[in-house]
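Input sequence (141 aa), recorded before submission:
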Amino acid sequence: MNSPTEPQPVVALGTKTVRDALAARGLVLGEHPPGTALDRLATLISKTAMNVDEIQQMLLGRADSAIRQLQSVTSGRDRVRHTSTCGVLQSLGVEIDTLVARRGDGIQMLRQLTTSYADLRGAPKPTPAPSRLPAPRRSGR
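Predicted structure, token format:
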């Protein structure tokens, strides 16, 4: 459970990623004439975002289970397992690692798709952040 000072987990991470990426270019995911490239791309973006949202929900559930199990260890309530040779988290660690990797792949794919969508829509590219390199030194001749 989160305390009031802890940030709330983002449940719909795929949807948020799409919304934020397109908003940075002044766009929202819109409807387009059926069969057009923009329509197919918008559909692919929506489906990919829903997939990432599902993965994120599974990941949050597994992480919550791991937290509860580890809290029982830190509080000493895991005594029943002292004779067990199984790991405390058993398969949860592997499941969490797999879900994190799948989520990362999905987020990367969404970034690529939203960039392509914005390019096809003709949205201006976001302005790059100014370089923070030091000014070149002048040589004294």
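Checked by second reader. The chain has three helices and no strands.
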